[in-house]
């Protein structure tokens, strides 16, 4: 039976960047509305079961209540997670459980940080990252109905994995060669000795950046690389050190927050490359959020890996599904009965 997971966190889209910048607040009701549209689409597309991560505000249960009377064959429930903490640990444990139970795909509603945590638990289970956060470089901008149809087309076999799933790169923090943590978009070295408000929004505190996807079309710290090095090609990242140097770059580091950053150096960060971290009194931020403070002399490095999460692209999936006949059937007649079926 095809089962799709949904991970949604009540705190995504509500961090400090709503106070220091002009970020949009994504309410829980908006998330509920998006989930109901996903469920209706998956019901129409032939998905048989959906399980939603529980959260302390009851987003999943409220979505089920709103839509269950309209569903035909889809069974929707709340994932058994034993303990709900209201923290990122819920996301990680839910992702691990969905991977262990071989869900066909998992829709993750959130920003870069939520997707980062979910990717660690999903391993090779296809992730459908949908933007509801602030610095959304990694998630896709897609309407809930289309997300649900894409999950259905893939889960029911209308679109093969090679036509719609790509492996994203990631940045790995390693200690003496052992994996410590990962980032999907950026690793940032920030002055300080505590995680404070977590979100990084003051460029004067940034010492260095490692980027997988420098883009001038994005909002967030990756935009620094996008405007500094616009000719950057896919498949390579950037390693930037801030400070006195030849260039300064102005970039939108948060919604409505455009700041100047002095650039000491900028180098291409190729797959397989590693850089030792030799900073004191700093915090390491992963995908825009301060995560941990390294100890003095701790042997840490940043490694660029091609082996990140498996990501299902909504647009590619829908385009291929249409070509393969998803949602299209022949009208029965006395001489030509039958209907379309999934193509490999």
Structural features, described:
By secondary structure, the protein is of the alpha+beta class. Helix content is 26%, strand content 30%. It has two domains: 3-168 and 310-324, Rossmann fold, CATH 3.40.50; 170-305, Tumour Suppressor Smad4. It has a six-stranded antiparallel β-sheet with strand order 12-11-10-9-14-15. The chain has a five-stranded parallel β-sheet with strand order 3-2-1-4-5, sandwiched between helices. A four-stranded antiparallel β-sheet has the order 8-7-16-13. Strand 4 (105-110), helix 5 and strand 5 form a beta-alpha-beta unit. It is globular, with a radius of gyration of 21 Å. Residues 16-20 have low confidence and may be disordered.
Please write out the topology.
Layout: E1 3-8, H1 17-20, H2 28-44, E2 49-52, H3 59-67, E3 75-78, H4 88-100, E4 105-110, H5 112-122, E5 127-131, H6 144-155, H7 161-164, E6 165-167, E7 170-175, E8 178-183, E9 186-191, E10 206-211, H8 222-228, E11 237-254, E12 257-269, E13 274-276, E14 282-286, E15 289-292, E16 300-305, E17 310-312, H9 314-324
Parallel strand pairs: 1-2, 1-4, 2-3, 4-5
Antiparallel strand pairs: 6-17, 7-8, 7-16, 9-10, 9-14, 10-11, 11-12, 13-16, 14-15
Q: What key attributes describe this structure?
A:
single chain; 344 residues; Rossmann fold; Tumour Suppressor Smad4; 6-stranded antiparallel sheet; 30% strand
CATH topology of the largest domain: the name is Rossmann fold
As a percent range, the share of strand residues is: 25-35%
Quaternary state reads single chain
Distance between the termini: 18 Å
Major pleated sheet: 6 strands, antiparallel
Tell me the series of helices and strands, N- to C-terminal.
EHHEHEHEHEHHEEEEEHEEEEEEEH
Radius of gyration: 21 Å
How many beta-strand elements? 17
């Amino acid at each position: 039976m095809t089962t799709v997971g949904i991970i949604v966190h009540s705190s995504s889209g509500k961090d400090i960047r709503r106070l220091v910048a002009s970020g949009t607040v994504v309410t829980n009701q908006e998330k509920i509305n998006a989930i109901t549209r996903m469920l209706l689409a998956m019901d129409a597309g032939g998905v048989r079961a959906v399980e939603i991560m529980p959260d302390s505000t009851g987003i999943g249960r409220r979505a089920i209540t709103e839509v269950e009377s309209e569903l035909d064959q889809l069974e929707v429930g709340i994932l058994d997670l034993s303990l709900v903490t209201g923290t990122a640990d819920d996301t990680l444990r839910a992702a691990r459980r969905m991977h262990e139970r071989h869900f066909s795909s998992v829709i993750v509603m959130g920003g870069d940080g939520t997707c980062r945590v979910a990717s660690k638990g999903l391993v090779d289970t296809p992730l459908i990252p949908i933007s509801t956060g602030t610095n959304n470089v990694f998630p896709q901008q897609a309407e809930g109905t289309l997300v649900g149809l894409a999950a259905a087309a893939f889960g029911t076999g209308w679109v093969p994995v090679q036509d719609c799933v790509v492996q994203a790169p990631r940045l790995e923090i390693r200690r003496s060669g052992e994996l410590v943590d990962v980032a999907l978009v950026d690793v940032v070295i920030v002055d300080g000795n505590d995680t404070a408000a977590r979100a990084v929004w003051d460029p004067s505190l940034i010492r260095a950046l490692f980027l997988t996807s420098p883009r001038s079309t994005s909002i967030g710290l990756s935009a620094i690389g996008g405007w500094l090095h616009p000719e950057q090609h896919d498949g390579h990242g950037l390693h930037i050190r801030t400070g006195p140097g030849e260039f300064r770059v102005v970039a939108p580091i948060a919604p409505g927050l455009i700041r100047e950053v002095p650039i000491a150096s900028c180098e291409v960060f190729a797959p397989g490359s590693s850089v030792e971290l030799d900073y004191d009194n700093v915090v390491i931020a992963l995908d825009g959020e301060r995560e941990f403070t390294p100890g003095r002399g701790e042997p840490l490095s940043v490694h660029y890996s091609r082996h990140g999460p498996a990501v299902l692209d909504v647009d590619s999936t829908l385009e291929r599904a249409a070509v393969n006949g998803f949602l299209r059937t022949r009208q029965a007649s006395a001489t030509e009965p039958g209907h379309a079926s999934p193509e490999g």
